[in-house]
Design goal:
Blueprint: E1 3-6, E2 13-16, E3 19-25, E4 36-42, E5 47-51, E6 57-65, E7 67-70, E8 74-77, E9 81-85, E10 90-94, E11 99-106, E12 124-127, E13 134-136, E14 142-147, H1 149-152, E15 158-164, E16 173-176, E17 179-186, E18 188-193, E19 196-201, E20 204-208, E21 215-218, E22 224-231, E23 236-239, E24 248-250, H2 264-271
């Protein structure tokens, strides 16, 4: 059975001056989970420091407010942007007026990526509203890859922003070889697993175990958007009804229908301008 938790039910712990952290997904909550997921709140003028261990990968999504990201350069982050932190990467996230962010970490990426020792994963800042969209060929759903092997040179996780318009639904499936985690950003709907349906809404985290059958449906009164994590990134999707499966095509356009200028290889080359110390 899926594990679910809402951010409103998780107590916040003070970790530093002006910084509170809610542990949404932990190995204690989900035994054997290879990924940890936190919601972090920064008060005005607070600064959060990142120093990734040599075997760990991190990922940041700004949920609310604005922040400044500093590493070997400085960038202003907005709610549309996410940051992929490779092993050994050091950075600081600060805010003048306050911010809330989602932080995902894979503490032992080497255990999930057979070529981890041979790779140099890429530091990448993405704006999900400007990235190329994958459109479902049979309905109105869309997904935007943010962390993927051909983008970041890392196999330990696949991370996508997924958009379900009102009443959109996915056929039932299971993923063999990876656990699946969802964090609902906006909207609400229904998830079903093991024949049992339950409501999902913004702030919910849902964990489906490797091989667990599930499906999702958005409500009829608006769009549902969530971040989907697969850990690791290589898995096989098996459809309960082979005749009803999702097929995805690249549109080479962003969420607004605007043509994107760079393909995956060009984007990777363009972004990796500054090497980081390893």
């Amino acid at each position: 059975m899926a594990t679910t938790v809402n951010q409103a039910t998780v107590a916040a712990e003070r970790v530093d001056a002006g910084i509170a952290r809610q542990h949404l997904l932990t190995p204690e909550r989900v035994r054997g989970s290879a990924m940890r997921l936190d919601r972090v709140t920064l008060s005005p003028s607070a600064a959060l420091h990142f120093n990734q261990p040599r075997r760990a990968l991190g990922w940041i999504l700004l949920l609310d407010g604005e922040a400044t990201f500093r590493a070997y350069y400085t960038d202003r982050l907005t709610k549309e942007q996410s940051v992929f932190l490779p092993p050994g990467f050091a950075a600081t996230l600060s805010t003048d007026k306050g911010a809330t962010l989602l932080y995902a970490e894979i503490p032992d990426a080497a255990a999930l990526d057979p070529d981890f020792a041979k790779r140099t994963p890429l530091f990448i800042v993405s704006d999900w509203m400007c990235e190329p969209v994958l459109a479902c060929e049979t309905d109105t759903r869309k997904r935007v890859p943010l962390v993927r092997e051909d983008i970041c040179d890392a196999e330990a996780a696949l991370i996508e922003m997924v958009v379900y318009p009102a009443n959109a639904a996915a056929p039932e499936c299971r993923h063999e070889g990876a656990a699946t985690m969802l964090f609902f950003v906006t909207g609400h709907g229904t998830a079903t697993t093991a024949g049992q349906a339950f409501a999902v809404k913004a702030g919910d985290v849902v964990h489906f175990a490797d091989g667990e059958r599930h499906t999702l449906r958005a409500s009829g009164d608006g769009e549902m958007r969530f971040v989907e994590f697969h850990v690791p990134s290589r898995f096989t999707t098996v459809w309960t009804s082979p005749g009803a499966k999702s097929a995805w095509r690249s549109t080479d356009r962003d969420i607004f229908g605007r043509e994107t200028l760079l393909d995956a290889r060009e984007r990777k080359s363009f972004r990796f301008v500054f090497p980081y110390p390893v």
